[in-house]
Amino acid sequence: MKSNCSNLYILSTLACQMSECLNEKELRRLAADLTALGYMIESLLAHQTDCENE
What is the distance between the alpha carbons of residues 10 and 6, in angstroms, rounded to a whole number? Predict the structure, then answer.
C-alpha cells in the first residue's frame, strides 16, 4: 500500500500558508470552489470509465 503522507504534508502546509494570506470570507469561497472542482473531476472520471466500459 502506497503512503500519501507527503501529499498530506503539502496540503497542510498550503492550507496554513493560505490562511495567513486570505481572510475568512476568501478562505470559505476558495474551500467551496475547490470542493466543487473535486466533485466535477470525480464526475468526469466516472463518465470516462462508463464510456470506456461500453
Answer: 6
Write the pLDDT tens digit of every residue in 3-44.
778 889 999 999 999 999 999 999 999 999 999 999 999 999
Contacts of 19 (CB under 8 A, 6+ apart): 27
What whole-number distance in Å separates Cα of residue 4 and Cα of residue 44?
23
Which residue reads 470542493 in cell numbers?
35
The amino acid at 34? L
Query: How is the chain split among helix, strand and coil, in percent rounded to 5?
Result: 85, 0, 15
Strand (E) or helix (H) holding 1: none
